[in-house]
Amino acid sequence: MPRDPQDAAGAQEERWGLVAVAGICSFLAMFDMGVMTVAVPDLAGGFDVPVAVAQWAVLGYQLPVVALLLPAGRWLDRAPLRPVALGALAGFGLCGATAAAAPAAAVLIGARLLQGACGAVLFVLMPLLAVRAVRPELRGRAMSVPATLGPLGAVVGPALGGVLLDHWGWRAVLLVKLPLCALAWWVARRGLPPGGRPAAPRRAECRDASLAGTAVGALLLGLTFTEGWVGPALCGFALVPGVLWARGDGGRRVRGALRAARTGGIHGAVLALAVAFAAVHFLLAVHLQRVEGVSAFGTGLTLLAFPAAMAVAGPVGGRLADRYGARPVAVTGAALVAAGFGLLAVAGDWPPLQVGWRLAVAGFGMGLYGGPAQLMVLDAAGPERMATAGSTVQLARSAGFALGPAAATALGSLTGPRTGPVLATAVALLAATLLARPARRATTAAPVDSGPAPPP
Protein backbone atom coordinates (compact mmCIF):
# COMPACT_ATOMS: atom_id res chain seq x y z
CA MET A 1 0.00 0.00 0.00
CA PRO A 2 1.54 3.39 -0.98
CA ARG A 3 2.37 5.79 1.79
CA ASP A 4 1.19 9.38 1.75
CA PRO A 5 3.89 12.09 1.68
CA GLN A 6 2.73 13.36 5.06
CA ASP A 7 3.01 9.87 6.53
CA ALA A 8 6.60 9.63 5.36
CA ALA A 9 7.40 13.12 6.58
CA GLY A 10 5.93 12.36 9.99
CA ALA A 11 7.78 9.07 10.42
CA GLN A 12 10.22 10.62 12.89
CA GLU A 13 7.84 13.04 14.61
CA GLU A 14 4.21 12.22 15.19
CA ARG A 15 1.81 15.09 15.78
CA TRP A 16 0.36 13.91 19.08
CA GLY A 17 -0.56 17.48 19.95
CA LEU A 18 -3.17 17.32 17.17
CA VAL A 19 -4.42 14.03 18.60
CA ALA A 20 -4.90 15.88 21.90
CA VAL A 21 -6.82 18.61 20.03
CA ALA A 22 -9.02 15.91 18.52
CA GLY A 23 -9.70 14.55 22.01
CA ILE A 24 -10.56 18.01 23.34
CA CYS A 25 -12.89 18.64 20.37
CA SER A 26 -14.68 15.37 21.05
CA PHE A 27 -14.96 16.05 24.78
CA LEU A 28 -16.24 19.62 24.29
CA ALA A 29 -18.83 18.70 21.67
CA MET A 30 -20.24 15.81 23.73
CA PHE A 31 -19.94 17.66 27.05
CA ASP A 32 -22.27 20.38 25.83
CA MET A 33 -24.88 17.88 24.63
CA GLY A 34 -26.14 17.43 28.20
CA VAL A 35 -24.38 19.82 30.57
CA MET A 36 -27.14 22.45 30.45
CA THR A 37 -29.92 19.95 31.17
CA VAL A 38 -29.53 20.40 34.93
CA ALA A 39 -29.71 24.20 34.59
CA VAL A 40 -33.09 24.41 32.83
CA PRO A 41 -35.16 25.09 36.00
CA ASP A 42 -32.73 27.83 37.11
CA LEU A 43 -32.83 29.41 33.65
CA ALA A 44 -36.63 29.43 33.66
CA GLY A 45 -36.68 31.14 37.06
CA GLY A 46 -33.84 33.55 36.33
CA PHE A 47 -35.23 34.80 33.02
CA ASP A 48 -38.89 34.44 34.09
CA VAL A 49 -39.77 32.25 31.10
CA PRO A 50 -41.63 28.90 30.85
CA VAL A 51 -39.59 25.73 31.18
CA ALA A 52 -40.46 24.89 27.56
CA VAL A 53 -38.60 28.07 26.50
CA ALA A 54 -35.67 27.55 28.88
CA GLN A 55 -35.31 24.02 27.52
CA TRP A 56 -34.10 25.52 24.25
CA ALA A 57 -30.83 26.31 25.98
CA VAL A 58 -30.33 22.54 25.56
CA LEU A 59 -32.26 21.93 22.33
CA GLY A 60 -30.74 25.04 20.73
CA TYR A 61 -27.35 23.33 20.88
CA GLN A 62 -28.51 19.85 19.96
CA LEU A 63 -30.52 20.97 16.91
CA PRO A 64 -27.64 22.36 14.78
CA VAL A 65 -25.27 19.63 15.97
CA VAL A 66 -27.56 16.91 14.61
CA ALA A 67 -28.80 18.89 11.61
CA LEU A 68 -25.40 20.06 10.37
CA LEU A 69 -23.26 16.97 10.96
CA LEU A 70 -23.75 15.52 7.48
CA PRO A 71 -23.55 18.84 5.55
CA ALA A 72 -20.44 19.73 7.57
CA GLY A 73 -18.84 16.41 6.67
CA ARG A 74 -19.55 16.97 2.99
CA TRP A 75 -18.05 20.48 3.18
CA LEU A 76 -14.95 19.35 5.07
CA ASP A 77 -14.18 16.73 2.42
CA ARG A 78 -12.89 19.65 0.34
CA ALA A 79 -11.84 22.23 2.96
CA PRO A 80 -8.37 22.79 4.51
CA LEU A 81 -8.21 21.83 8.17
CA ARG A 82 -6.30 24.70 9.76
CA PRO A 83 -8.71 27.63 9.15
CA VAL A 84 -11.73 25.42 9.83
CA ALA A 85 -10.31 24.06 13.10
CA LEU A 86 -9.23 27.48 14.38
CA GLY A 87 -12.52 29.09 13.37
CA ALA A 88 -14.67 26.34 14.91
CA LEU A 89 -12.77 26.35 18.22
CA ALA A 90 -12.80 30.14 18.44
CA GLY A 91 -16.49 30.27 17.56
CA PHE A 92 -17.35 27.58 20.09
CA GLY A 93 -15.58 29.45 22.89
CA LEU A 94 -16.92 32.90 21.96
CA CYS A 95 -20.49 31.62 21.70
CA GLY A 96 -20.11 29.97 25.10
CA ALA A 97 -18.90 33.25 26.61
CA THR A 98 -21.76 35.15 24.96
CA ALA A 99 -24.30 32.67 26.30
CA ALA A 100 -22.82 32.97 29.80
CA ALA A 101 -23.16 36.76 29.69
CA ALA A 102 -26.63 36.70 28.11
CA PRO A 103 -28.99 39.33 29.59
CA ALA A 104 -32.10 37.63 28.18
CA ALA A 105 -33.26 34.16 27.22
CA ALA A 106 -33.39 35.07 23.51
CA VAL A 107 -29.69 36.00 23.52
CA LEU A 108 -28.80 32.79 25.34
CA ILE A 109 -30.74 30.62 22.90
CA GLY A 110 -29.27 32.43 19.88
CA ALA A 111 -25.74 31.95 21.19
CA ARG A 112 -26.42 28.27 21.85
CA LEU A 113 -27.69 27.80 18.29
CA LEU A 114 -24.45 29.25 16.90
CA GLN A 115 -22.41 27.21 19.35
CA GLY A 116 -24.18 24.08 18.13
CA ALA A 117 -23.15 24.89 14.56
CA CYS A 118 -19.53 25.11 15.72
CA GLY A 119 -20.03 21.90 17.68
CA ALA A 120 -21.11 20.07 14.53
CA VAL A 121 -17.84 21.08 12.86
CA LEU A 122 -15.85 19.94 15.91
CA PHE A 123 -17.55 16.54 15.72
CA VAL A 124 -16.44 16.10 12.11
CA LEU A 125 -12.94 17.52 12.70
CA MET A 126 -12.20 15.11 15.54
CA PRO A 127 -11.56 11.92 13.55
CA LEU A 128 -9.80 13.80 10.75
CA LEU A 129 -7.28 15.38 13.12
CA ALA A 130 -6.64 12.12 14.95
CA VAL A 131 -6.20 9.89 11.91
CA ARG A 132 -4.16 12.31 9.82
CA ALA A 133 -1.73 13.27 12.58
CA VAL A 134 0.09 9.93 12.79
CA ARG A 135 1.37 7.11 10.63
CA PRO A 136 -1.11 4.38 9.60
CA GLU A 137 0.39 1.87 12.02
CA LEU A 138 -0.36 4.24 14.96
CA ARG A 139 -3.88 5.27 14.02
CA GLY A 140 -5.56 2.86 16.40
CA ARG A 141 -4.08 4.43 19.52
CA ALA A 142 -4.57 7.94 18.07
CA MET A 143 -8.25 7.28 17.37
CA SER A 144 -8.74 5.86 20.87
CA VAL A 145 -8.14 9.31 22.40
CA PRO A 146 -11.18 11.16 20.97
CA ALA A 147 -13.27 7.98 20.91
CA THR A 148 -12.79 7.70 24.69
CA LEU A 149 -12.98 11.38 25.63
CA GLY A 150 -16.22 11.99 23.69
CA PRO A 151 -18.43 9.59 25.68
CA LEU A 152 -16.66 10.69 28.86
CA GLY A 153 -17.76 14.23 28.10
CA ALA A 154 -21.35 13.05 27.69
CA VAL A 155 -21.25 11.27 31.06
CA VAL A 156 -19.33 13.92 32.98
CA GLY A 157 -21.35 16.86 31.63
CA PRO A 158 -24.55 16.56 33.71
CA ALA A 159 -22.65 15.55 36.87
CA LEU A 160 -20.17 18.42 36.70
CA GLY A 161 -22.95 20.76 35.65
CA GLY A 162 -24.87 19.91 38.80
CA VAL A 163 -21.88 20.68 41.03
CA LEU A 164 -21.22 24.01 39.31
CA LEU A 165 -24.90 24.92 39.42
CA ASP A 166 -25.12 24.33 43.17
CA HIS A 167 -22.05 26.44 43.97
CA TRP A 168 -21.70 29.13 41.27
CA GLY A 169 -24.90 29.21 39.19
CA TRP A 170 -25.74 28.40 35.58
CA ARG A 171 -23.29 30.90 34.06
CA ALA A 172 -20.39 28.88 35.49
CA VAL A 173 -21.77 25.81 33.67
CA LEU A 174 -21.21 27.63 30.37
CA LEU A 175 -17.81 29.09 31.29
CA VAL A 176 -16.10 25.96 32.62
CA LYS A 177 -15.06 24.69 29.18
CA LEU A 178 -13.51 27.94 27.90
CA PRO A 179 -9.95 27.14 29.12
CA LEU A 180 -10.07 23.88 27.17
CA CYS A 181 -11.19 25.77 24.06
CA ALA A 182 -8.30 28.19 24.41
CA LEU A 183 -5.78 25.37 24.92
CA ALA A 184 -7.04 23.42 21.90
CA TRP A 185 -6.97 26.57 19.72
CA TRP A 186 -3.37 27.33 20.73
CA VAL A 187 -2.16 23.77 20.07
CA ALA A 188 -3.99 23.60 16.73
CA ARG A 189 -2.52 26.94 15.66
CA ARG A 190 0.98 25.67 16.38
CA GLY A 191 0.52 22.16 15.01
CA LEU A 192 -1.50 22.53 11.80
CA PRO A 193 0.38 23.71 8.69
CA PRO A 194 -0.88 26.81 6.87
CA GLY A 195 -3.86 26.21 4.62
CA GLY A 196 -5.92 28.24 2.18
CA ARG A 197 -9.30 29.71 2.83
CA PRO A 198 -12.12 27.17 3.02
CA ALA A 199 -14.48 27.39 0.08
CA ALA A 200 -17.97 28.64 0.78
CA PRO A 201 -20.62 25.93 1.14
CA ARG A 202 -22.25 25.10 -2.16
CA ARG A 203 -25.92 25.70 -2.86
CA ALA A 204 -26.69 21.98 -2.56
CA GLU A 205 -24.97 21.85 0.83
CA CYS A 206 -26.99 24.84 2.07
CA ARG A 207 -30.19 23.19 0.84
CA ASP A 208 -29.28 19.96 2.64
CA ALA A 209 -28.57 21.89 5.84
CA SER A 210 -31.91 23.72 5.59
CA LEU A 211 -33.88 20.51 5.08
CA ALA A 212 -32.05 18.70 7.87
CA GLY A 213 -32.43 21.68 10.21
CA THR A 214 -36.15 21.93 9.52
CA ALA A 215 -36.68 18.20 10.10
CA VAL A 216 -34.67 18.10 13.33
CA GLY A 217 -36.17 21.37 14.59
CA ALA A 218 -39.73 20.17 14.02
CA LEU A 219 -38.97 16.87 15.71
CA LEU A 220 -37.34 18.44 18.77
CA LEU A 221 -40.09 21.05 19.06
CA GLY A 222 -42.74 18.35 18.74
CA LEU A 223 -41.19 16.36 21.55
CA THR A 224 -41.52 19.36 23.90
CA PHE A 225 -45.35 19.26 23.53
CA THR A 226 -46.38 16.29 25.66
CA GLU A 227 -50.12 17.03 25.57
CA GLY A 228 -52.60 17.62 22.78
CA TRP A 229 -52.16 17.23 19.03
CA VAL A 230 -49.42 19.82 18.40
CA GLY A 231 -46.53 17.53 19.31
CA PRO A 232 -47.58 14.59 17.10
CA ALA A 233 -48.36 16.98 14.25
CA LEU A 234 -44.91 18.55 14.38
CA CYS A 235 -43.24 15.14 14.57
CA GLY A 236 -45.25 14.04 11.53
CA PHE A 237 -44.31 17.21 9.67
CA ALA A 238 -40.64 16.46 10.32
CA LEU A 239 -40.95 13.52 7.94
CA VAL A 240 -41.50 15.83 4.96
CA PRO A 241 -38.12 17.65 4.94
CA GLY A 242 -36.47 14.44 6.15
CA VAL A 243 -37.71 12.52 3.10
CA LEU A 244 -36.78 15.40 0.79
CA TRP A 245 -33.25 15.37 2.21
CA ALA A 246 -32.97 11.59 1.86
CA ARG A 247 -34.07 11.75 -1.80
CA GLY A 248 -31.81 14.69 -2.59
CA ASP A 249 -28.12 14.97 -3.36
CA GLY A 250 -27.06 14.86 0.29
CA GLY A 251 -28.94 11.65 1.03
CA ARG A 252 -27.66 10.01 -2.16
CA ARG A 253 -24.09 10.93 -1.29
CA VAL A 254 -24.34 9.44 2.20
CA ARG A 255 -25.97 6.25 0.88
CA GLY A 256 -23.31 6.00 -1.81
CA ALA A 257 -20.52 6.36 0.75
CA LEU A 258 -22.04 3.67 2.97
CA ARG A 259 -22.55 1.32 0.02
CA ALA A 260 -19.10 1.87 -1.44
CA ALA A 261 -17.32 1.17 1.86
CA ARG A 262 -19.84 -1.39 3.15
CA THR A 263 -19.91 0.27 6.56
CA GLY A 264 -23.66 0.18 7.15
CA GLY A 265 -23.19 -2.61 9.68
CA ILE A 266 -20.56 -0.65 11.63
CA HIS A 267 -22.84 2.39 11.76
CA GLY A 268 -25.65 0.17 12.99
CA ALA A 269 -23.37 -1.20 15.72
CA VAL A 270 -22.35 2.31 16.81
CA LEU A 271 -26.01 3.36 17.01
CA ALA A 272 -27.05 0.19 18.85
CA LEU A 273 -24.32 0.38 21.49
CA ALA A 274 -24.96 4.07 22.11
CA VAL A 275 -28.68 3.40 22.62
CA ALA A 276 -27.93 0.46 24.94
CA PHE A 277 -25.47 2.45 27.07
CA ALA A 278 -27.69 5.54 27.37
CA ALA A 279 -30.80 3.49 28.19
CA VAL A 280 -29.11 1.40 30.91
CA HIS A 281 -27.41 4.49 32.37
CA PHE A 282 -30.77 6.28 32.62
CA LEU A 283 -32.62 3.27 34.07
CA LEU A 284 -29.99 2.62 36.71
CA ALA A 285 -29.87 6.27 37.78
CA VAL A 286 -33.62 6.22 38.41
CA HIS A 287 -33.74 2.74 39.98
CA LEU A 288 -30.85 3.22 42.43
CA GLN A 289 -32.40 6.37 43.88
CA ARG A 290 -36.09 5.48 43.82
CA VAL A 291 -36.02 1.75 44.57
CA GLU A 292 -32.70 1.05 46.30
CA GLY A 293 -32.78 4.32 48.25
CA VAL A 294 -29.23 5.30 47.25
CA SER A 295 -28.34 8.98 47.56
CA ALA A 296 -27.65 11.10 44.47
CA PHE A 297 -23.96 11.19 45.40
CA GLY A 298 -23.84 7.40 45.85
CA THR A 299 -25.65 6.91 42.56
CA GLY A 300 -23.14 9.13 40.79
CA LEU A 301 -20.21 7.21 42.25
CA THR A 302 -21.77 3.89 41.20
CA LEU A 303 -22.41 5.02 37.64
CA LEU A 304 -18.88 6.42 37.48
CA ALA A 305 -17.61 2.82 37.23
CA PHE A 306 -18.59 2.75 33.55
CA PRO A 307 -16.64 5.82 32.32
CA ALA A 308 -13.72 5.02 34.64
CA ALA A 309 -13.30 1.56 33.10
CA MET A 310 -13.82 3.05 29.67
CA ALA A 311 -11.03 5.57 30.21
CA VAL A 312 -8.67 2.74 31.18
CA ALA A 313 -9.64 0.55 28.23
CA GLY A 314 -9.51 3.24 25.51
CA PRO A 315 -5.69 3.40 25.17
CA VAL A 316 -5.50 -0.39 25.48
CA GLY A 317 -7.96 -0.79 22.63
CA GLY A 318 -5.96 1.58 20.45
CA ARG A 319 -2.69 -0.29 21.00
CA LEU A 320 -4.33 -3.67 20.40
CA ALA A 321 -5.92 -2.36 17.19
CA ASP A 322 -2.52 -1.21 15.90
CA ARG A 323 -1.07 -4.65 16.63
CA TYR A 324 -3.88 -7.07 15.76
CA GLY A 325 -6.24 -5.03 13.60
CA ALA A 326 -9.27 -2.91 14.41
CA ARG A 327 -12.00 -5.47 13.70
CA PRO A 328 -11.16 -8.20 16.27
CA VAL A 329 -10.64 -5.57 18.98
CA ALA A 330 -13.97 -3.88 18.19
CA VAL A 331 -15.82 -7.22 18.20
CA THR A 332 -14.20 -8.21 21.51
CA GLY A 333 -15.19 -4.86 23.03
CA ALA A 334 -18.82 -5.21 21.94
CA ALA A 335 -18.90 -8.74 23.35
CA LEU A 336 -17.62 -7.45 26.71
CA VAL A 337 -20.34 -4.79 26.71
CA ALA A 338 -22.88 -7.57 26.21
CA ALA A 339 -21.28 -9.56 29.04
CA GLY A 340 -21.46 -6.61 31.44
CA PHE A 341 -25.11 -5.88 30.68
CA GLY A 342 -25.91 -9.61 30.79
CA LEU A 343 -24.38 -9.93 34.25
CA LEU A 344 -26.50 -6.96 35.31
CA ALA A 345 -29.66 -8.56 33.89
CA VAL A 346 -29.21 -11.84 35.80
CA ALA A 347 -28.25 -10.23 39.13
CA GLY A 348 -30.67 -11.02 41.92
CA ASP A 349 -30.67 -7.47 43.29
CA TRP A 350 -28.99 -4.18 42.43
CA PRO A 351 -27.04 -2.79 45.40
CA PRO A 352 -24.43 -0.20 44.35
CA LEU A 353 -21.39 -2.49 44.64
CA GLN A 354 -22.99 -5.22 42.51
CA VAL A 355 -24.05 -2.69 39.90
CA GLY A 356 -20.65 -0.97 39.89
CA TRP A 357 -18.43 -3.91 38.96
CA ARG A 358 -20.85 -5.09 36.28
CA LEU A 359 -20.89 -1.61 34.78
CA ALA A 360 -17.08 -1.66 34.86
CA VAL A 361 -17.08 -4.77 32.67
CA ALA A 362 -19.39 -3.10 30.15
CA GLY A 363 -17.39 0.14 30.32
CA PHE A 364 -14.13 -1.68 29.64
CA GLY A 365 -15.72 -3.24 26.57
CA MET A 366 -17.00 0.13 25.37
CA GLY A 367 -13.51 1.57 25.73
CA LEU A 368 -12.01 -1.26 23.68
CA TYR A 369 -14.57 -0.92 20.90
CA GLY A 370 -14.88 2.86 20.40
CA GLY A 371 -11.65 3.84 18.66
CA PRO A 372 -11.26 0.70 16.49
CA ALA A 373 -14.87 0.92 15.26
CA GLN A 374 -14.45 4.52 14.10
CA LEU A 375 -11.09 3.68 12.54
CA MET A 376 -12.75 0.90 10.52
CA VAL A 377 -15.22 3.40 9.07
CA LEU A 378 -12.57 5.99 8.16
CA ASP A 379 -10.21 3.45 6.61
CA ALA A 380 -13.01 1.98 4.52
CA ALA A 381 -14.22 5.38 3.32
CA GLY A 382 -10.92 6.50 1.78
CA PRO A 383 -9.41 10.00 1.77
CA GLU A 384 -11.97 11.63 -0.56
CA ARG A 385 -14.92 10.80 1.71
CA MET A 386 -13.25 10.64 5.11
CA ALA A 387 -15.04 13.72 6.50
CA THR A 388 -18.41 12.43 5.29
CA ALA A 389 -17.69 9.07 6.92
CA GLY A 390 -16.67 10.80 10.16
CA SER A 391 -19.90 12.80 10.18
CA THR A 392 -22.10 9.74 9.63
CA VAL A 393 -20.54 7.74 12.46
CA GLN A 394 -20.79 10.76 14.79
CA LEU A 395 -24.45 11.15 13.83
CA ALA A 396 -25.11 7.49 14.61
CA ARG A 397 -23.48 7.83 18.04
CA SER A 398 -25.22 11.13 18.87
CA ALA A 399 -28.60 9.75 17.80
CA GLY A 400 -28.03 6.73 20.03
CA PHE A 401 -27.26 8.89 23.06
CA ALA A 402 -30.43 10.90 22.39
CA LEU A 403 -32.69 7.88 21.79
CA GLY A 404 -31.45 5.84 24.75
CA PRO A 405 -33.22 7.73 27.58
CA ALA A 406 -36.46 7.90 25.57
CA ALA A 407 -36.33 4.15 24.97
CA ALA A 408 -35.54 3.58 28.66
CA THR A 409 -38.53 5.67 29.74
CA ALA A 410 -40.86 3.71 27.48
CA LEU A 411 -39.46 0.38 28.65
CA GLY A 412 -39.65 1.33 32.31
CA SER A 413 -43.29 2.36 32.05
CA LEU A 414 -44.33 -0.73 30.08
CA THR A 415 -42.24 -3.63 31.39
CA GLY A 416 -40.22 -2.51 34.43
CA PRO A 417 -36.56 -1.53 34.76
CA ARG A 418 -35.03 -5.02 34.48
CA THR A 419 -36.09 -5.41 30.86
CA GLY A 420 -33.60 -2.70 29.91
CA PRO A 421 -30.39 -4.65 30.66
CA VAL A 422 -31.84 -7.76 28.96
CA LEU A 423 -32.54 -5.87 25.75
CA ALA A 424 -29.24 -3.99 26.03
CA THR A 425 -27.45 -7.35 26.16
CA ALA A 426 -29.23 -8.49 23.01
CA VAL A 427 -28.45 -5.19 21.28
CA ALA A 428 -24.76 -5.42 22.20
CA LEU A 429 -24.59 -8.98 20.84
CA LEU A 430 -26.19 -7.74 17.62
CA ALA A 431 -23.58 -4.98 17.47
CA ALA A 432 -20.77 -7.52 17.85
CA THR A 433 -22.24 -9.49 14.95
CA LEU A 434 -22.45 -6.40 12.76
CA LEU A 435 -18.87 -5.41 13.58
CA ALA A 436 -17.65 -8.88 12.61
CA ARG A 437 -18.87 -8.43 9.04
CA PRO A 438 -16.00 -7.43 6.71
CA ALA A 439 -15.90 -3.97 5.13
CA ARG A 440 -14.06 -2.98 1.98
CA ARG A 441 -10.68 -1.50 2.80
CA ALA A 442 -9.68 1.69 1.01
CA THR A 443 -6.46 3.59 0.43
CA THR A 444 -4.61 5.39 3.20
CA ALA A 445 -5.83 8.71 4.53
CA ALA A 446 -4.93 12.04 3.01
CA PRO A 447 -2.19 14.28 4.40
CA VAL A 448 -2.82 16.46 7.42
CA ASP A 449 -3.83 19.42 5.27
CA SER A 450 -4.18 18.37 1.70
CA GLY A 451 -6.52 21.15 0.67
CA PRO A 452 -9.64 20.60 -1.40
CA ALA A 453 -10.15 17.01 -2.39
CA PRO A 454 -11.29 16.11 -5.89
CA PRO A 455 -15.02 15.42 -6.16
CA PRO A 456 -15.85 11.72 -5.92
Write a structural description:
- By secondary structure, the protein is mainly alpha-helical.
- It folds into 2 domains: 5-201 and 248-436, Growth Hormone, Chain: A (Up-down Bundle), CATH 1.20.1250; 203-247, no CATH class.
- Helices cover 79% and strands 0% of the residues.
- The protein contains 21 helices and no strands.
- It has helices spanning 5-9, 16-34, 40-47, 51-54, 56-76, 81-100, 105-132, 139-168, 170-175, 178-191, 203-224, 230-237, 239-247, 249-261, 264-290, 296-303, 305-324, 326-346, 352-381, 386-415, 419-436.
- Helix 2 packs across helix 8 (139-168), helix 5 runs antiparallel to helix 20 and helix 6 (81-100) packs antiparallel against helix 7.
- Residues 1-12 and 441-456 have low confidence and may be disordered.
Characterize this entry briefly:
This protein is mostly helical and 456 residues long. The chain has helices at 5-9, 16-34, 40-47, 51-54, 56-76, 81-100, 105-132, 139-168, 170-175, 178-191, 203-224, 230-237, 239-247, 249-261, 264-290, 296-303, 305-324, 326-346, 352-381, 386-415, 419-436. Helix content is 79%, strand content 0%.
Number of strands: 0
Tally of helical segments: 21
What is the terminal-to-terminal distance?
A: 21 Å
Report the major sheet: none
Name the helicity range: over 70%
Give me the strand/helix succession. HHHHHHHHHHHHHHHHHHHHH
Could you give me the name of the CATH homologous superfamily of the largest domain? MFS general substrate transporter like domains
Average pLDDT confidence is 79
Any idea of the CATH topology of the largest domain?
A: Growth Hormone, Chain: A
At CATH level 2, the architecture of the largest domain is Up-down Bundle
- The CATH class assignment of the largest domain is Mainly Alpha
Tell me the domain tally: 2
- Determine the structural class based on helices, strands and strand pairing: mainly alpha
Hey, roughly how much beta strand do the residues contain? under 5%
For the CA atoms, what is the radius of gyration?
A: 21 Å
Stretches with pLDDT under 50, minimum 5 residues: 1-12, 441-456
Q: What is the global morphology?
A: globular
